[in-house]
Amino acid sequence: MPVNRNALLRYKTIDHCLSNRYRQWTLDDLIEACSDALYEYEGIRKGISRRTVQLDIQTMRSDRLGYNAPIIVVDNKYYTYEDPNYSILHSPLTERDMTELTEAVGVLKQMTVFPAMSGVSDLVSRMEEQVSMVVGRREPLILMERNDRLRGLEYVPVLYDALKNRCAQEMTYQSFKAQSPSTFVFYPYVLKEFNNRWFVLGKRKTNMRYTNIYALDRIKSLRPMPDEPYVKPASFDAERYFSEMVGVSRNENDRPQTVEFWASPMDSMYFITKPIHHTQEVVRQNEDGETLFSIKVIVNRELMRELMGFGPGVKVVSPKKLAAYISKRHQEAAEGILRNSS
Predict the structure, then answer these.
(1) Which pTM value belongs to this model?
(2) Pair 117, 48 in one domain
(3) For a designed S-S bond to 316, which of 14, 101, 187, 261 qualifies (C-beta 3.0 to 4.6 A apart)?
């Protein structure tokens, strides 16, 4: 069970008291000291009970937090440390602590590939070296998906600073369809990672009616515009914006629709254990395991690719327009394979 900040403050206060060998500490003294500390650091006026401090002492004596504090009672009245040099601040890390720290450092190390983490890469390396010296070197147990050759990562820290400081940007951008890049004033609102690619969502000064999403790997340049007033609608909610869809793309007037699809028995297990959207529900399941699923999302190209990726294992039944589109694409793919093989 996690330890809250108030409990940690009480442990530290009790430790400070018991480390002071020039005074004798009764239970009432410890209660008063903890109450004063909570008031000073947290503004909590309500005192704490005897039971709370007694449980704190019991916890410190145990190995629950790795303290194993040698707290004794002298003359059935005064609390102190049996070892005059003991302090919880000097307590060694437990084996469990070191295991968790090792995994945390491993995860941080994998994230330093992003420029936004470049400032702490040296710190992570030093942490890794220190932990390795204690527990020994070993292979990582957690591997995160990453692409070291992904273009546009250099813009992550630039846009992060722009978001934090609410700074407009002059962006030069070229989509896959455009024959040449275009330059415009852009107000960034949020960074979004999807399918191992980074995107930035915001509005263009020339058309504030629409919200636009841009892939960082298609950005040609960014230039901060501190003298340009930053504009962001107070009603904009990034989490809600993305919660209505799979992926990142949508038109301004798009609204969520109910999408129903049948999945084969094998693919049904995939959807049950890894829903493609938080609105996913099981509508019906046959005896053989074939399942009809329902989600309420905006129909976009990411959703289409997700569903088409299962091939014949998924059959969309509604909306009819989506079902017809996917059926047509499967047919075109099959005809293309037949032509190439003949």
Answers:
(1) 0.60
(2) no
(3) 261
